[in-house]
Amino acid sequence: MVEAKNKKIGKYRWRIVVLLFFAATINYIDRQVLGILAPELQETFNWSESDYGFIIMAFQMAYAIGLITTGTILDRIGTKKGFSIAIVLWSLAGMVHAAARTVFGFAASRFLLGIGASGNFPASIKTVAEWFPKKERALATGVFNSGTNVGAILTPLLVPLIALNWGWKWAFISTGALGFIWLAFWLYFYVRPEKNNKLTISEREYILQDSNEPEQKRIPWKKIIRHRQTLGICLARFVTDPIWWFFLYWLPKFLYSNYGIDLTNIGLPLITIYVISIGGSVFGGWLSSRLIEKGKEPVSARKFTILIMAVLVVPVFFVSGISNMWGAVILISMATFAHQGYAANIFTIVSDIYPKNAVGSVIGLSGFAGAVGGVIFSAAVGLILEITGSYYSVFAIASIAYLACWLILKIFVPDNKTITITD
Fold first, then answer.
1. Domain check: are 26 and 161 in the same one?
2. Mean pLDDT across the stretch 112-123?
3. How many domains does the chain have?
4. Cα 198 from chain centre
5. What tens digit of pLDDT does each residue of 79-99 get?
6. For residue 293, what pLDDT is reported?
């Protein structure tokens, strides 16, 4: 029935989603290359732990800036041009890593990468809004966003293979070049539905069926930040996003320093961790939905699910003291699984309590808060490792971060109160 309907309407819009999927995949590959190569680069260039922390901070700082500026830029210059500029910038930045020799050189490359990479999600969301009616947008978003998980899995497979055969420079150059291949397809296929002559009349009408509805005016930030729920959600992201950044960028170094895992055998442990983490998104969404079906208030169900996820993270405290590598991988996998389950609910809380025309702004503000937390935590991790030489304190912080997040939400976000904001 669905297949017959799609044939009648047309499927061209799903080609656009495929492009967004690959953009998300490439985005995650480019941002993770440095983490995979970190042990080798640290030996090659004699980086201290704080040097590496500074390099990671540069990306997160740029990403934070990009999150609060990209949306406005896209609105001004258009999706096709804006997305093209973003991927050219982050692809060039990825390739420029190959020419870096100093800490500042790598940090500058990471900063440019962060500015470009921050455009991926806002541009993809805007593209979906242009190419899909409201009733299909959630599905389209879920499809393209799954590319981030694919990128996280592919990177430990591709990067060691390239680096071991052709050297670390070519790992940056070849992965950065993927963006330009994507750009050729994007420029060819992307023409707004109103002007696209490859669409059937029926598919164009289907895509534009909501175009006559009045658009809600965007609410200014000053009217959003006065609500305590906004502060609570921003604080929650501030304490938890840095933990996910830590898993992305420091795990290869941890596995190398504690278990001697290098480029020749890093693939399987990292792939295991990220494959398991995918299940967290599904389980976290299912659990809160199930609780709502049983009569629990939506926000209460989300917070209870976040509490369950927070408890699953606690055992990561013991990781640095485990002598068996796979034991550590299991505990880290539990933590990343839990983070994804938490993330599925923290985003949904926003749509539960805020009016639709405020959701994007709250997500942007809280993402900015999370990136700022990542900057601070990266600096702290570098100093902790340089002073103590141990990951004990870092995993101790990670183990309680999600419990702190749950407590913050408990204090700042009431269960039965939605927010009304008028402009």
1. yes
2. 91
3. 2
4. 32
5. 899 999 999 999 999 999 999
6. 86
Q: pLDDT (tens digit, 9 = 90+) per residue, 371-415?
A: 999 999 999 999 999 999 999 999 999 999 999 999 999 999 988
Whether 52 and 140 share a structural domain: yes
For residue 363, the enclosing domain spans 220-414
230 and 189 belong to one structural domain: no
Q: How many other CB atoms are found less than 10 A from the CB of residue 421?
A: 15
Q: Do 246 and 302 fall into the same domain?
A: yes
Report pLDDT digits (tens) over 169-205: 999 999 999 999 999 999 998 888 888 888 788 888 8
Over residues 119-146, the pLDDT tens digits come to 898 888 888 878 888 777 767 877 887 8
Answer yes or no: is 423 within a domain: no
Domain boundary pick from 206, 236, 255: 206
- By the 10 Å C-beta count (0-12 exposed, 13-18 middle, 19+ buried), 72 is classed as exposed
Same domain, 298 and 369: yes
Q: Are residues 252 and 157 in the same domain?
A: no
Q: Is 85 a domain residue?
A: yes
Last residue of a domain, one of 160, 181, 206: 206
Backbone angles phi, psi at 133, to 5 degrees: -70, 160
Answer yes or no: is 420 within a domain: no
Q: In the chain, what percentage of residues exceed pLDDT 90?
A: 56
CA dist., res. 171 & res. 87, Å (int): 18
Quick one: 152 and 248 in the same domain? no
Q: Is residue 179 part of a domain?
A: yes
